[in-house]
């Protein structure tokens, strides 16, 4: 059984289906508590944790006893997304750094938690909305009060104006000589008018003072409220950080490797065995990995030779783009197109650009070089077995860009090319050419100043099965190192795009890869585990074993093809118990695992840019001096990138018709010359077909001339394909 996880006894005791911890009992009020299994990492797998839901916050602890002093993490449900994955699994994420992958003991228990979480979230959102409404209400009241005071001010002005006129009229009336009673009356009216004006002014002043006071208090209240919110956010972040630091200190205190007492093995001394995570997909595996984490050999270097020269600091020669136009949201009736494609070869079916991403298949092949540093490090290795680990990690890394890339790359036209000249920035140059159209085949050649050469010829076969699309890459990839003359070759696994018609598209990679060193006989067997609805294992899991020509294991690799890979040196191996189908498992005792590769984070806004990586965003950037057959000059692809999809579809039809016309002309010429069929008669411009003696395969390899033609600016030999 191949495994790389460390599980609590509660997990290992239940090896099939969902784990069976005690069922939590709902408590009265807004608090809900219980045991859940939380995903930690691919080494430890799911771990049993005590969760408490209270006041819109979900917190967890290792044990119930920790509730009084050590919170391991808290997530605010008001801003969280709750997603159900399957019968027992669900995910809670706040869209930032906090994501909890959780597993309940049963589907019923999962539903209890989902219900409690949704209710708590709704209440938290409601409270947040009420707070916002109250704030808006205060602002609205203040605006109304301000308007009313303006009205009062206007009234005051009118009162002053008319009161002054009244005063003047009364003064004039007072100057008239009349009887005593009349004069007394006039004085009374004058006094009353004066009192009226004084009272009006006092009223206006009181209203203005009230408004000013209300505004000042409102500002203080808003500031206090915002301060409380900021403090709460900082407190949550601090608690999360403290929980991480606490875990780190605990691991450091225990040596980061001591296993629970239930896992101790007297026969191993201080070398703890790491138990594997049990699931149906692991039952057919023949190997089991053990970590000898506190072994003195851990001080040995598992990376490149320390005596090898340090890499040169290469300055970027140009500033490359970091964005492309956002993907338009165009509606397309998928079924109306795909219903006629079931069981057919997809490359022969004309498809609108709505299914595409604005990159060619040649550019997708060039994306394999995103983690070229792995080959740079491999070139410096003194040991061929260690070098094999870097080549294997490079093999896995090429799939990391596909996890969200559900768009189909453009099928290259025959003779189409793509150059990727990163000599000044990364020390390598790369060239791809479409060397065949039916079947579609592309040849790729990359050479580095660090002493390695990568070449591949890939033919894609694809079938639409109704619910999913299978893409089977045919052909091989080869890597040659100058210093050691090591010659590696391997093939790609099958890519499957699920939910083609209904549901959210998702991609899986599955199959097995044998990376072979033809000079030494070393071999690395990699297994890409297919996704299983019933599996409790980490999705996208990859495991591998590096063996010499005699079959002796020297390294094991483990990780996922969308995140990272680690490798460990094997110190001892032994035969374990029989697995399914009567196969005897091999148990490996290893040194502590070291990270060999980690995926680069996607750029900001990648979800609106076809989930392109930072490298992918630059591949279709216009460049001067490239060949007229380069993908960057392809008009339908350029129009699609600019968001002009209707024009792109029209241009795509024009190019495909032009290619068909060219092919018919070539067939007529072949008939006249009594030659071989058209595809065999076509000669690639920059590649030639050879029989590789080392691998025993026939493939197209670079014959030279492209970079010299570019330096001279001479492209007369290039066909006019666009």
From TrEMBL:
Task: Please list the GO terms describing molecular function.
Answer: sterol binding
Gene3D superfamilies registered for this protein in UniProt = 2.40.160.120, Pleckstrin-homology domain (PH domain)/Phosphotyrosine-binding domain (PTB)
This protein's GO CC annotations: cytosol; perinuclear endoplasmic reticulum; plasma membrane
Q: Which BP terms from GO are recorded? A: lipid transport
Cellular compartments annotated: Membrane
InterPro entries, alphabetized: OSBP_sf, Oxysterol-bd, Oxysterol-bd_CS, PH-like_dom_sf, PH_domain
Instruction: Give all residue intervals belonging to the PH domain.
Output: 29-122
Name the residue ranges with Acidic residues bias: 281-290
Q: Does the keyword Transmembrane helix apply?
A: no
Enumerate the UniProt keywords alphabetically. Coiled coil, Lipid transport, Lipid-binding, Membrane, Phosphoprotein, Transport
Using the record for this protein, list the coiled-coil segments as residue ranges, or answer none: 225-252
Q: Where is the composition biased (Basic and acidic residues)?
A: 642-671
Q: How does it sit in the membrane?
A: Peripheral membrane protein
Region (Disordered) location: 1-29, 264-290, 642-677
- Among the Pfam families in the record, one is Oxysterol_BP
Q: What family does this chain come from, according to its entry?
A: Belongs to the OSBP family.
Protein name per UniProt: Oxysterol-binding protein
């Amino acid at each position: 059984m191949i495994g790389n996880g460390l599980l609590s006894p509660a997990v290992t005791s239940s090896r099939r289906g969902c784990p069976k911890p005690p069922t939590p009992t709902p408590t009265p009020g807004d608090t809900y508590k219980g045991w859940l299994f939380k995903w930690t990492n691919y080494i430890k797998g799911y771990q049993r944790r005590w969760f408490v839901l209270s006041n819109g916050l979900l917190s967890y602890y290792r044990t119930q006893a920790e509730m009084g002093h050590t919170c391991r993490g808290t997530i605010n449900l008001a801003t969280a997304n709750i997603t159900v994955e399957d019968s027992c699994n669900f995910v809670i994420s706040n869209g930032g750094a906090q994501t909890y992958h959780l597993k309940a003991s049963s589907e019923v228990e999962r539903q209890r938690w989902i219900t409690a979480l949704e209710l708590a979230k709704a209440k938290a959102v409601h409270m947040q909305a009420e707070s916002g409404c109250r704030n808006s209400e205060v602002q609205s009241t203040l605006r109304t009060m301000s308007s009313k005071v303006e009205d009062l001010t206007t009234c005051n002005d009118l009162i002053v104006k008319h009161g002054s006129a009244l005063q003047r009229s009364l003064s004039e009336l007072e100057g008239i000589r009349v009887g005593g009673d009349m004069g007394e009356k006039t004085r009374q009216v004058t006094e009353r008018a004066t009192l009226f004006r004084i009272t009006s002014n006092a009223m206006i002043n009181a209203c203005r003072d009230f408004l000013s006071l209300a505004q000042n208090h409102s500002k203080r209240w808003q500031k206090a409220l915002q301060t409380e919110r900021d403090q709460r956010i900082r407190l949550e972040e601090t608690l999360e950080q403290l929980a991480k630091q606490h875990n780190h200190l605990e691991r450091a205190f225990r040596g980061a490797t001591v296993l629970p007492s239930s896992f101790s093995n007297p026969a191993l001394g201080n070398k703890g065995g790491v138990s594997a995570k049990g699931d149906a997909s692991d039952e057919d595996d023949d190997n089991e990995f053990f970590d000898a984490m506190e072994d003195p050999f851990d001080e040995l270097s598992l990376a490149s030779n320390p005596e090898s020269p340090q890499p040169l600091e290469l300055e970027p020669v140009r500033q490359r783009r970091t964005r492309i136009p956002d993907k338009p949201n165009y509606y397309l009736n998928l079924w109306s197109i795909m219903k006629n494609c079931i069981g057919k070869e997809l490359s022969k079916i004309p498809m609108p650009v709505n299914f595409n991403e604005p990159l060619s298949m040649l550019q997708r092949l060039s994306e394999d070089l995103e983690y070229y540093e792995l080959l740079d490090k491999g070139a410096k290795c003194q040991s061929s077995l260690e070098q094999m680990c870097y080549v294997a990690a490079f093999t896995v890394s090429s799939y990391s860009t596909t996890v969200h890339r559900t768009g189909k790359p453009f099928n290259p036209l025959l003779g189409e090319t793509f150059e990727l000249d990163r000599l000044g920035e990364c020390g390598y140059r790369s060239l791809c050419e479409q060397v065949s159209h039916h079947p579609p085949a592309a040849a790729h050649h990359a050479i580095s100043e660090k002493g390695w050469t990568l070449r591949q010829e890939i033919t894609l076969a694809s079938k639409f099965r109704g619910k999913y699309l299978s893409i089977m890459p045919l052909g091989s990839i080869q890597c040659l190192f100058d210093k050691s003359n090591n010659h590696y070759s391997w093939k790609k696994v099958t890519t499957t795009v699920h939910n083609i018609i209904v549901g959210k598209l998702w991609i899986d990679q599955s199959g097995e890869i044998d990376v072979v060193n033809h000079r030494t006989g070393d071999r690395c067997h990699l297994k890409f585990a297919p996704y299983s609805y019933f599996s409790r294992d980490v999705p996208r899991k990859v495991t591998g074993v590096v063996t010499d020509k005699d079959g002796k294991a020297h390294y094991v690799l483990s990780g996922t093809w969308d995140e990272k890979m680690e490798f460990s040196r094997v110190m001892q191996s032994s035969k374990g118990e029989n697995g399914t189908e009567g196969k005897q498992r091999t148990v490996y005792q290893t040194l502590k695992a070291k990270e060999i590769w980690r995926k680069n984070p996607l750029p900001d806004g990648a979800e609106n840019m076809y989930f392109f990586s930072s490298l992918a965003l630059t591949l279709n950037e216009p460049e001067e001096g490239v060949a007229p057959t380069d993908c960057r000059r392809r008009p339908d692809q350029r129009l699609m990138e600019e968001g002009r999809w209707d024009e792109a579809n029209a241009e795509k039809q024009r190019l495909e018709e032009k290619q068909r016309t060219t092919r018919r002309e070539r067939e007529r010429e072949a008939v006249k010359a009594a030659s071989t069929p058209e595809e065999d008669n076509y000669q690639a411009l920059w590649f030639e077909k050879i029989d590789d003696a080392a691998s025993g395969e026939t493939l197209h390899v670079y014959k030279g001339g492209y970079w010299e033609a570019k330096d001279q600016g001479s492209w007369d030999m290039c066909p006019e394909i666009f």
